[in-house]
Amino acid sequence: MDRWEALVRFDDEVREAAEKLRPFGLAFVDELGEAFMALREDRKYLPNIVRGLAEKARQIEAERLRAESERAISALRETQRGEDIVPETLDILLRAVTEHGYVILVQEDKTFVLSKGTSKEYLRSNADIRRFGGFPAKEQQSL
User: Fold this and answer.
1) Which domain holds residue 7?
2) Exposed, middle or buried: residue 106 (CB in 10 Å: 0-12, 13-18, 19+)?
3) Packing angle, helices 12-21 and 46-74, rounded to 10
4) What is the pLDDT of residues 17-26, one digit of tens each?
């Protein structure tokens, strides 16, 4: 057992700090150990190290989720109403996932179902997506 493992196992303050990072993965617990040791085990830095590493982990997860969602959503080329999905509405869908915690499912008929808690939104067109995202639908010009 090395020094860091002993601290995590037997020191309440260090164990508490490590437990806050454990949900993000053991790599973040190890990174906590490296930073803590580099700062000569000065406990006054523990809250700042934990806060910084937790923020880093959240950013990495948000980037991963955004990339994964973008791949899934961009695989679809059109809405349920047969419209091409435009970059503006794609961005709204991605932000719904990464910034607002929605889960997006796509039904067989290409309807986007956005769920959060008990709430569900059914989006069938670019205009529906814009309204959901708080953007006004562009008015069609008459000829």
Assistant:
1) 3-61
2) middle
3) 10
4) 999 999 999 9
Alpha carbon distance 16, 47 (integer Å): 10
> What is the rounded CA–CA span in Å between residue 94 and residue 89?
9
Residue type, 63: E
pTM as predicted: 0.65
User: Within a domain: residue 66?
Assistant: no
In a domain, 143, yes or no: no
Residue 111 tokens read as 């309807």
In whole angstroms, give the CA distance from residue 85 to residue 78: 5
Q: How far apart are CA 94 and CA 115, in angstroms?
A: 13
User: What amino acid is encoded at 13 in this protein?
Assistant: E
Q: Which of 34, 28, 40, 25 is nearest to 4 (CA)?
A: 34
Please check whether residue 24 is in contact with residue 64, taking contact to mean a CB–CB distance below 8 angstroms: no
Tens digit of each residue's pLDDT (9 = 90 or more) over 68-103: 777 777 677 889 999 999 989 988 988 888 788 888
For the chain, first and last CA: distance in Å?
A: 78
- C-alpha span between 31 and 28 (Å, rounded): 5
The domain boundary, picked from 13, 34, 61, lies at 61
